[in-house]
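Quick question, first post here. What does this chain look like in 3D?
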Amino acid sequence: MKNDSSNENIAKDNYATSDILRDGRTLHIRSIRADDKQLLQESWQALSKQSQYFRFFTPKDELTEGDLVYFTEIDLVNHVGLGASIFSDDAEVPVGVGRYISSDVGSNASAEIAFVVGERYQGLGIATILLRHLVLIARAQAITEFTALVLPENTRMQSVLRKSGLPMKQDINSAGVMEITLSLT
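> Answer (accepted):
Ran it through. Tokens below.
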């Protein structure tokens, strides 16, 4: 897989790069911007109920105005969001989002990660690619681990994290949710 990002790119406020999917198409990756609210809402509404549930652990038909502000007005330091898209019939089609949120960037900082990929595009390596780019950005911000809360039935996300090549620990919390930790050091 191609990866044309660099440390210089990571330091910029507008992360943008591309990568190659398993099927040979080019995946465009860029930081989420405040003007992505409508795009994010439309993408959310196109997801299956199961994908929505896997992301929030509760039914959620649409993102609230507060959700949209939170998910698009980010600082690219403590809250990094990357959108992924492909071109189809000369139109840009959003296919996935990956993000991390840290309350404290710096020495031994931890960040929670989350992903969502549209059903038509699952199995192409999009979450894996987004994870790789988030790792690059996080390491440049001195983040040393990612944590993920994953439902036990979300086997695809478990597989993405397990196959990342990063040292991994997992536990089941009292609510029955898997808590997965990936070491970035």
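Strands lie at 16-20, 26-31, 79-88, 91-101, 109-117, 143-150, 168-172, 178-183.
The chain is about 30% helix and 30% strand.
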